[in-house]
Amino acid sequence: MIYSEILTKGSKFLKKKKIQNPYLDSELILSKVINKKREEILLNTNNKLKNKDIVKFKNYLCRRCEKEPMAYILGYKYFWKHKFLTNKSVLIPRPDTEQVIAETLKYLPIEKTKKILDIGTGSGCIIISLLKERPKCIATAIDISKNAIKVAKTNAKLHQLENKINFINIDIDKYKSYNYDLIVSNPPYINSVELNRLDDDIKFHEPTLALSGGSDGLRDLKKVIIKSKNLLKINGKLILEIGHRQKNKCSKILNENGYYINQISKDLSGKERCIVSTKLK
Ligand SMILES: C[S@@+](CC[C@H](N)C(=O)[O-])C[C@H]1O[C@@H](n2cnc3c(N)ncnc32)[C@H](O)[C@@H]1O
Question: How many domains is the chain built from?
């Protein structure tokens, strides 16, 4: 079978299974199987595939039909300016979270050394992106998931930051180090009702531990806000990603816990998703 034939067959099959972007996914899968860039495939559509590659292609295609996200099938996802390795132990880095990076960088002057903590690091995409932009900073990143920490460490190595970020597998409840200038966190914040309504790609494949914020979605946000009071320096910043209907409740929790709200910013679709606050005392 030649490239163009397998791409047509693959995309038809995915389309039948109601997968969005069937042709693009087929191309990406073929490019993984034969380890060549998409451009090379498009320039050589009459090239023949080896039988073993046809088998591999079919296997990946079946995984995609089961709604497995492309980031897990391919094993990577681009976020901010870099490529991050991903597997089913970690949440797939989202474009929305890039807003958190943009906001956080405003509070990290390029020449200064700041001590940063990333709570719930997952793939490490937030802290690694920040440290790539602010190499003088010192960072710790924690996650309750041992496997997520493994992925984050691999990503740090990939981006030559393994000696600059201290990764710790720990529950935020048990973490005791303090004196941070800035804490950043994208905690799980989806409530039980919304969790059930998520697309199958997310609901059946991404880790529930990374998504579920309890019945009201605020369980982990509250934990992070309360815990950060002890971990931050006075005037330290707490920067949170929140769900699109959590601005008011989250602001209230922050105010009740003695934080001043500096800014609430919108994501690409105009929803308020990032809160910057300051620990006052
Ligand atoms: C929404 S994901 C964010 C992952 C990554 N920071 C990102 O933005 O793509 C939340 C992460 O918090 C971690 N987590 C959940 N509960 C935690 C806890 N009690 N202590 C520490 N980490 C926790 C999960 O394992 C998951 O990796």
Answer: 2
Q: Does any domain span residue 71?
A: no
Could you tell me which of 146, 158, 92 has the C-alpha nearest to residue 123? 92
- The reply to whether 218 and 93 lie within a common domain is yes
DSSP letter at 48? B
**What ligand 1 atom has the least distance to the C-alpha of 171?**
20
Residue 111 CA to ligand 1 center (angstroms) comes to 29
Provide the pairing of β-strand 165-169 with 232-241.
Answer: unpaired
Nearest CA to ligand 1 atom 18: 171
Query: Considering the domain boundaries, does residue 167 fall inside one?
Result: yes
**Contact (CB, 8 A) for 239 and 184:** yes
Supply the range of the domain harboring residue 44. 3-66
Task: Label residue 240 exposed, middle or buried (CB < 10 Å: 0-12, 13-18, 19+).
Answer: buried
Per-residue pLDDT of the chain (281 residues; tens, 9 = 90+): 999 999 999 999 999 999 999 999 999 999 999 999 999 999 999 999 999 999 999 999 999 999 999 999 999 999 999 999 999 999 999 999 999 999 999 999 999 999 999 999 999 999 999 999 999 999 999 999 999 999 999 999 999 999 999 999 999 999 999 899 999 999 999 999 999 999 999 999 999 999 999 999 999 999 999 999 999 999 999 999 999 999 999 999 999 999 999 999 998 889 999 999 999 98
Taking the centre of ligand 1 as the mean of its atom positions, its distance from the CA of residue 187, in whole angstroms, is 5
C-alpha 90 to ligand 1 mean position (Å): 8
Let me know whether 45 and 158 are in one domain: no
